[in-house]
Amino acid sequence: MYQDGDLLIGGLFEIQRYLKVFPELSFRTEPKLPRCELFYMTSFQQALTMVFAINEINNNPNLLPNITLGYQIYDNCLRLGVAFRGATALVSGTEETVSDLNCKGAPPVIGIIGDPGSTHSIAISSVLGLFRLPMISYYATCSCLSDRKKYPSFFRTIPSDAFQVRAMVQILKHFGWTWVGLIYSDNDYGIYAAQSFHQEMELFGYCVAFSEILPNDNNPIDIQHITRVIQSSTARVVVVFSASSLLIPLMNEVVLQNITGRQWIASEAWATSPVFRTPRFQPFLGGTMGIAIRRGDIQGLHDFLLCIRPNNDQRNDIVRIFWENIFGCSFETEGKGTDGEQVKKVCTGQEDLSTTNTPFTDVSGLRASYNVYKAIYALAHALHDLMQCEEGRGPFSGNRCADLTNLKPWQLVHYLQKVNFTTGFGDHVSFDKNGDALAIYDVLNWQPSADGSIKLHNVGVVNEGAATGMVLTLDEDAFYWNFETTKVITYEC
User: Which membrane topology describes this protein (predicted)?
Assistant: First the structure.
């Protein structure tokens, strides 16, 4: 997606997924090539939240007056190569010729919002850090990204896993669950979180009954092995660090094998995922406890989302793809587009979004989208502070100020490090010396609803302040348990 402006902000979101299906090794059929099969409505909402925030800032006379922000947004398709290529295009531009041989002027983008993945952020920030171009992730939580020497221009509006792991162990300690299983994804997010989890458990004298890695290739042999481990273990509490997309094959197998009576504890990457909150999963995942990133309200976002319309601009083709997915139609008029053997209806572009019921228009639990919103405003406030500089009183060599016509990325990083503001929802936004956000989480409990699906209930808060340390507040009367808590087995290590 693209919109012109005096200064551009780049964005990286995981809107579609190129699904690599584990091939059938029968030598009778040709393996399927990776293809785009999934469109994430929640991720597209996050991308549109970036657009909404920029439009809101452009209409605010008190923030960045006389400056119009634009954007350039890429879909990373959940693949590192695609994400890195998008980031490279954002920071270097896509023009084939260079018009200014002196290399003066602002960079193609003044900063990047994203990437949501820790592995992607590590790779991209390693390069962006060389040029001190600011990158603010709204979802990358790997504690490794707090290393200012390796990632000098990386910021995030989500707490690092170092805080999340401590929050999880606080919950285990509260309920006296000392014997737990651990499952984690085979990427930087899962591996670093698992290492921290083992260390925190040892610190309290608790035990990890088993530790299993989720396969990235959906290999059914690996998935069945993990379910056998879960079934045979006496541990009834299972902690999982993984994105929901990598967890789907395992949970499908949990249903097939009828594995019940487990207390699942979800990391923030899947604690709010709508994928598992269906009647099919309720008997198995009801009662799940999750660590969730802070929820917030964004006034006006719902109406904005309902006003989105596709157009013929190829730079905004993702809106057309979204439209085809949500309405089950096609803009291809020749043959009217096909879906297998079924003929799709033709999209008119005038379909009514208010008649749909998807996570895209659901703004009741804005978490990642709220982080995107805060990230955009952090960049805007940093840029605003930079523009307020009085010549002769600036923070740079010789008391100079930054020149907006020849803006250096590291100058914006300087102001971003000092940013300090409050959102309309009342949350304070600032960064510590490592670029990390204030650590605060909601504690969620998955409870059955009248239609048999699962609804999220906020049952507590975990807040870590510099003076108070980790503080856990739980409303135990509000919990739903899917098993008898007295049957949770504990061991002395």
Answer: Multi-pass membrane protein
